[in-house]
Amino acid sequence: MLRADACAMPDPRIDIDRLLRRIHALGEIGALPGGGACRLALSDEDRRGRDLVRGWMQQRGLQITIDAIGNVVGVWPGREPGPVVMTGSHIDTVRTGGLYDGNLGVLAGLEVIETLQDAGVQPRRDLAVAFFTNEEGARFAPDMMGSQVFVGALAVEDARAVVGIDGTTVGQQLDHIGYAGNDAAVAVHAFVELHIEQGPVLEQAGTRIGVVEGVQGISWTEFTVDGVSNHAGTTPLRLRHDAGYVAGCVIQFVRAMSREIAGDQIATVGALELRPNLINVIPNQAVFTVDLRNTDAEGLARAEQRLHTYVDHLAQAEGVTVSHRSLARFEPVGFDPDLVHRVEAAARGLGWSTLRMPSGAGHDAQMLASSCPTAMIFVPSVGGISHNVREHTEPADLEAGANVLLRVLLDLAS
Ligand code: HGY
Ligand code: MN
Ligand code: MN
Questions:
Q1: Separation of alpha carbons 126 and 206, rounded Å
Q2: If DSSP codes are grouped into helix, strand and coil, which group holds residue 362?
Q3: The pTM is what?
Q4: Ligand 3 centre and the CA of 24: distance in Å?
Q5: pLDDT at 10 over 70
Q6: Which of 92, 111, 115, 122 is disulfide-compatible with 2, CB 3.0–4.6 A?
């Protein structure tokens, strides 16, 4: 017998042991030495992870939809069918992925639904848990690709045409793993994502729950520098057109620039390839990426401007040619103030300390925010480490975050 709604029932709590079992079972797929997992988007490991999580959704009777870009949504009908209260995140990883980035948000969402089912609660609204395709963007840029398609910010044909770092296309790989669906997008009433912070702020503040107010702006650019290969031993400096030197100057410049620009400007050269990549040959080509982020839209635009001006001057001085292409560009996003307040109230209601903060990392929630009231819950990352096999969050913090998620979802769905 299913009881009506939240107010008539004891206050359910998630089962942390079941959640941890799931996190570790998923982490077995693409497991890396040292504790993390590698499931690059649309890889066979990603397929196996998808199959496992979809199976767990089906075991609990969720109605599964798969859309044209492979976003998977499991819906548990409420008493009054309609737009769903959704949670979720991603299960694709970077190459040096941890156990919790994305996976926590998906598995905690499933855990919340199971907890309510076990407690005999059927909220008024449908509840849904989703995993979105290619949140990381590490193999196929841009990141948050699936959630962009989900909210109509990116056409599925354009997403399918993207060529990845290994020369394959999203469309080919999506078809290969069998996740090119054709279900219509689910209508969403509100979206809440639980995620690890992936930075040091909560741990340093000694705070358990991050109340995320928004996501900083992101700018990804790939530069290709074409110089002249030459002999490392016979070519005087004044005759060099050294693509590797240009890449090195940019790495140094973006760090110095970040210190000068207002806001929380940060910059990373994460990928770098030199050709011919030989010890005694001056590189004739360098291909590298620059990841710029800032909570302030103005500051981010200024950083982009200064970077391109610097590269143009450097190219002239070194006698090389430089081309570039944008791989991702997102303005800073603010979450729904009422929903942010509900996250804060739910956490405090459970007795947890809270801290309002921006997100340094990109998340699917920043895409959902364009189509429905959206907010995020953070839990601390030990040592602020993420995108690293040593990524870790204490079980007590995982449990706290999942119980805050349960409270907020129940509040929104009742
Ligand atoms: O790059 C990011 O912030 C996210 O991990 N995709
Ligand atoms: Mn993530
Ligand atoms: Mn990530």
A1: 35
A2: coil
A3: 0.94
A4: 17
A5: no
A6: 122
Cβ-contact 250, 314 below 8 angstroms: yes
Pairing relation of β-strands 188-196 and 84-89? Answer: parallel
User: In this structure, which ligand is nearest to the CA of 361?
Assistant: 1
**In the predicted model, what is the mean pLDDT of the chain?**
96
Phi, psi (deg, nearest 5) at residue 340: -60, -40
Ion ligand 3, residues whose Cβ is below 5 A away: 101
Q: What's the rounded Cα separation, in Å, for the pair 122 and 303?
A: 50
* Tokens standing for residue 114: 């199971």
Return the SS3 of 261.
Answer: coil
Question: CB 12: neighbour CB atoms within 10 A?
Answer: 19
Nearest ligand to residue 105 Cα: 2
User: H-type helices in 319-382, by residue range?
Assistant: 337-349, 365-368
Which tokens is 103 given?
A: 């996976």
Distance CA 397, CA 187 (A): 31
Contact (Cβ atoms closer than 8 angstroms) between residue 150 and residue 37: no
Confirm if 144 and 362 have CB atoms less than 8 A apart.
yes
In this structure, are residues 216 and 360 in contact, taking their beta carbons and an 8 Å threshold? yes
Q: Is ligand 1 within 6 A of the CB of residue 102?
A: no
Counting atoms of ligand 1 from 1, which one is nearest the CA of 362?
A: 3
The per-residue pLDDT for range 140-193, each reduced to its tens digit, is 999 999 999 999 999 999 999 999 999 999 999 999 999 999 999 899 999 999
Phi, psi of 378 (to 5 degrees): -110, 150
Closest atom, ligand 1, to C-alpha of 144: 6
CA of 101 to the centre of ligand 1 (A): 10
Gap from CA of 321 to ligand 3 centroid (Å): 33
Tokens (6 digits) for 254 = 């973006």
Token couple for 165: 């770092």
Q: Whose CA is nearest to atom 5 of ligand 1?
A: 136
- Does the structure show a pLDDT above 80 at 7? no
User: How far does the centroid of ligand 2 lie from the alpha carbon of residue 90, in Å?
Assistant: 7
DSSP 1-37: --BS-GGGS------HHHHHHHHHHHHTTTB-TTS-B
Which 3 state secondary structure label does DSSP give 174?
Answer: helix
H-type alpha helices, 353-394: 365-368
Determine the residue type at 210: G
Q: How much is the average pLDDT of 81-94?
A: 97
The 10s digit of each residue's pLDDT in 352-394 is 999 999 999 999 999 999 999 999 999 999 999 999 999 999 9
